[in-house]
Amino acid sequence: MDRTCLLFNNSVYGMTGGQVAPTTPTGGRASTAPTGNQEPAFDACRLLEAAGATFVARTTLYEPPVVAEIVAEAITHHGFSFVELISDCPVYYGRYNDLGEGPAMLTAMRGRDAKISGILAHKAFVGHLPAAVPRPGLPQGVLHRG
């Protein structure tokens, strides 16, 4: 089946008040988890790959040219394509987790790219919680082509 599914992952159910979601990182706060999410975040890319998607990718919205390349490849791929686009909700997720306004959150996405090392990879973007809380480095780019 030639279909492309785009998942805009903003870490919470943002349109209904910022409730904890399956994609809320462990320790991430939400309106229904004020002391932090106790569960590990669900990895939709791994699920879709296991379910037989023939193209699976993940990227943040930090670099629009990369997003455009990946989405274009997903759309032109023959088979079922899945792309997770990480775009944290600045209104609820950002506010509950002291991550700053939209521009600061967008810049912080760099630190969650598994390819980035050094100080950005270990920076605590939620000052009072350990560095891995917002979201550990996730593999990005094209994760599977079949």
Folded structure, characterized:
- The model is unreliable at 114-135 (pLDDT under 50).
- This protein is 26% helix and 20% strand.
- By secondary structure, the protein is an alpha/beta fold.
- It has a 4-stranded mixed sheet, with helices on both faces. A two-stranded antiparallel ribbon has the order 2-3.
- The longest helix is centred in the middle third of the chain and has 13 residues, at 64-76.
- The two termini are 13 Å apart.
- It has a single domain (3-145), classed as Rossmann fold (3-Layer(aba) Sandwich), CATH 3.40.50.970.
- The protein contains 5 helices and 6 strands, in the order βββαβαβαααβ.
Provide a quick synopsis of the model.
The protein is an alpha/beta fold and 146 residues long. Helix content is 26%, strand content 20%. The protein has helices at 44-50, 64-76, 90-96, 102-108, 119-122, and strands at residues 3-9, 12-13, 19-20, 55-60, 80-86, 141-145.
> How are the strands of the largest sheet arranged?
1-5-4-6
> Which percent band covers the strand fraction?
15-25%
Sketch the topology as an H/E string, one letter per element: EEEHEHEHHHE
Major beta-sheet overview = 4 strands, mixed
* Mean pLDDT over the residues: 82
Shape descriptor: globular
Beta-strand segment tally: 6
Q: Structural class of the secondary elements? A: alpha/beta
Number of alpha- plus pi-helical segments: 5
